[in-house]
Amino acid sequence: xxxxxxxxxxxxxxxxxxxxxxxxxxxxxxxxxxxxxxxxxxxxxxxxxxxxxxxxxxxxxxxxxxxxxxxxxxxxxxxxxxxxxxxxxxxxxxxxxxxxxxxxxxxxxxxxxxxxxxxxxxxxxxxxxxxxxxxxxxxxxxxxxxxxxxxxxxxxxxxxxxxxxxxxxxxxxxxxxxxxxxxxxxxxxxxxxxxxxxxxxxxxxxxxxxxxxxxxxxxxxxxxxxxxxxxxxxxxxxxxxxxxxxxxxxxxxxxxxxxxxxxxxxxxxxxxxxxxxxxxxxxxxxxxxxxxxxxxxxxxxxxxxxxxxxxxxxxxxxxxxxxxxxxxxxxxxxxxxxxxxxxxxxxxxxxxxxxxxxxxxxxxxxxxxxxxxxxxxxxxxxxxxxxxxxxxxxxxxxxxx
Length: 401
Description:
This protein is α/β, with parallel strands linked by helices. It has helices at 6-9, 22-34, 51-63, 65-70, 88-94, 112-122, 144-155, 175-178, 191-204, 211-221, 225-236, 259-266, 271-283, 286-298, 303-321, 327-337, 343-353, 358-375, 383-393, 395-400, and strands at 40-44, 101-105, 132-137, 161-167, 182-185, 208-209, 256-257. Strands 2-3-4-1-5 form a 5-stranded parallel β-sheet, covered by helices on one side. Helix 6 (112-122) links the parallel strand 2 (101-105) and strand 3. Helix 9 (191-204) packs across helix 10 (211-221), helix 15 (303-321) crosses helix 17 (343-353) and helix 15 (303-321) packs antiparallel against helix 18 (358-375).
């Protein structure tokens, strides 16, 4: 376990450990309790939101020896949906050596020949488990011919077979495939939930991390738990280990990873920096804005990422301000548009947004999008962003005159 990356080391092994997908977990666990498991599922949603994890949990639960036994005892039926993680079936699946759990990457096995081979394998009964489970990841990558070859099998699979298809691009999956599956849509995780999970992992790793640093990691993960855990692992690598005598794997207890250290490791800035820049833009303070941009560059941050963050921040302002007189809708839009913001940050950008007109948002967002694209080929990376700010303030026109 020591050599595993964090998202593999702390992958949920029970349904209760899965965060932010309650609507899916509730439906699946009810089906497991009642013994009414479908023959084909379609998991869709953004990357890193738990599709493959839940697929493996479902495969483990339907084959858990202890759970299957508990279905025959009404007194324990309420607990029957969780895999025990102790029987031989659960252990084999957890360790990745279960022959009856077949995982296929459709990105590299997308042709009709691979699907025909899969269809042939389906005919054979499981070697050990009760069900043979086929998880096809990135299923949208299959060719049309491969999809057509899969259709009949999905419609009438053998009683011992369960299919779980996963995709990040549901619009590329044929409607005929979707209609043969139970579809579940995974959602991006909120910042609070990601921060909470990162804090738990950091504690288990024996590392102290500032909450603001965890919030920055969560914001950069853009709602993906896996991305957040990968970034946390990258940040933790900067923390000096204790001497060998103090215990392997532990860290210096009085050493805390700070926001500034996290910004340096990730090469990105926190939400606080876009808030600060917005203040310069509101005041049309050209000198202050240009100094701040160069400060960010000199400290080694990615200026293209900063421009992207400005686009995202002003987009949020534009959308949220349009709901300023409708509190109930505003609360909903906060969850949909800005789930990564804390309540305090949300209030700040909402107040900042009220100081702009609709035309201002259109001009600023277009300026920052243009700057972000031009940064990639600029000899001075900060120059396109500097010009965008100068054009907004109006200094550019004065120079030409």
